[in-house]
Amino acid sequence: MKTKNIILSSKNDSSISDRQVRDCPDVNEKTVPQRIPRRYREDIKKLQERYDLHEGLVINVSLKDIRGICERDYPKIEAYLGLKNFLLRAFGVTLNIYSQKTKGDFDKNTDEP
Question: Fewer beta carbons within 10 Å, N or C terminal of the chain?
């Protein structure tokens, strides 16, 4: 088996390591997005006040409670699907909303049984 030795000058070594640090942040690192869509700004602000939003957080909340936190014109779980997707993508937070009409079980739109 042949191996190749590649020798880089110290100038190239530092530029490569600088570029790697700058261009390749830690994969597990989640940061607050620079731009939160206008339609979610108030929702995120209110959720942040009530819950400490951090990666891996799972929020299980009833439809009645979430309506008190994040107001919507359409009083159904489907009205929060965009917010749920944004929280998962941007913050790594899972928002599970259940209806009390389903006798405490999670709604069919959630991933949990």
Answer: N
8 A C-beta contact, residue 96 and residue 60:
yes
Report CA-CA distances (Å) from 10 to 3, 6, 81. Answer: 22, 13, 52
Tens-binned pLDDT, residue by residue, of the chain (113 aa): 555 555 555 555 555 555 454 555 554 445 555 688 999 999 999 999 999 899 999 999 999 999 999 999 988 999 999 999 999 999 999 999 999 876 545 545 555 54
Calculate the dihedral angle through the C-alpha atoms of 98, 33, 51, 111, rounding to the nearest 10 degrees: 20
**Residues contacting residue 101 through CB under 8 Å, at least 6 positions apart:** none
Question: Coil, strand, or helix at residue 45?
Answer: helix
Pair 103, 67: CB distance under 8 Å: no
Structure tokens at 88: 């998962």
